């Protein structure tokens, strides 16, 4: 249910999922805590390599672009984020985050339900876009069209047909084929509408790259390409409000020092460039970036990496964000651990609720399956 639809029109949410389980302790580093180095003799960030936030914690290397925004009061760090009875399976934990159902198996995603409330009549098939292959569970919701883009530069229906008239003929046939099956039965209706929505969404989004102009030079890696594509769609003013992408794998069981360093080099650089693009196009006040992972890693290293844990960290970034610390940094003391893991101290649905109600002015209860306390995340 929309509480104030007029205020949601220009607001955008860009979600970056760090798939595989990002190592909280090597992202926001307790560099002044001896226990951290005791538990991680092989897989830890040296104090001299930390980018200090204060005298106790700091960002890991390659998070300089995020530290720059932190210094400007534009980054919220959500410490100890998680959920009760944590599950250390990638698939199950990700499913929990995507459906907002820790105890049950859900069929609809929280972002799909958000799109349903933002666009109740499904007028815009590009209201939400996934940048990547497949469609994440978070965006799935029956009857809600969602575009999923592997490569925006080649995205579309039958784009390999070079002759314009031939393509128009093929697309007309495609449209009639799907349109002709409407009304036969529920399954065929669903397939038909999906096809028509795909046709509409493809032709809307394929225009975005040619309208884009920027002085920002993104790196050549998947997360940078995805965020550049998000910028292209955003600046084309297609009415897209939700942008989803993921990067990984953050499943650093071995070789973590090198792998985690490379991953954050890519993520940090891409987020910094994307934010600079927002500023260049004067979209920074209407855009919020949400970065999260399905769980953190174990407190003790395994000699070369870290194994699946529980309590994690998330970030909210933007000009409209109330920068600062939310939740508490979990204790490393052994009697405060959860079977060798960091304890979560705030439910991820608190953050979802804050985003939905404070940013989009939506009633969050039906979307996140309950009522939860909120952080004061937005100005």
Please describe what this structure looks like.
The protein has 379 residues and is an alpha/beta fold. The chain contains twelve helices and twelve strands. The strands form two sheets. Strands 1, 5, 6, 7, 8, 9, 10, 11 and 12 form a nine-stranded mixed β-sheet that branches. A three-stranded antiparallel β-sheet has the order 2-4-3, with no helix packed on it. The protein has helices at 5-8, 34-39, 64-71, 90-99, 110-118, 164-179, 186-205, 208-211, 222-235, 256-280, 348-359, 365-368, and strands at residues 12-18, 28-29, 51-52, 58-59, 75-82, 128-131, 147-149, 242-247, 287-292, 312-317, 324-326, 346-347. The protein folds into two domains: 5-152 and 220-368, 3-Layer(aba) Sandwich (Alkaline Phosphatase, subunit A), CATH 3.40.720; 156-205, no CATH class. Helix 9 packs parallel to helix 10 (256-280).
**Rg from Cα:** 21 Å
Instruction: Please indicate the count of domains.
Output: 2
The general outline is globular
What is the CATH T-level topology of the largest domain?
Alkaline Phosphatase, subunit A
Uncertain segments are: 1-7, 157-164, 177-196
Ends apart, CA distance between termini: 22 Å
Class per helix and strand makeup? alpha/beta
Q: Please estimate the helix content.
A: 25-40%
Order of helices and strands: HEEHEEHEHHEEHHHHEHEEEEHH
The count of strands amounts to: 12
The quaternary state of the protein chains shown equals single chain
For the record, the CATH architecture of the largest domain stands as 3-Layer(aba) Sandwich
Sheet with most strands: 9 strands, mixed
Overall pLDDT: 88
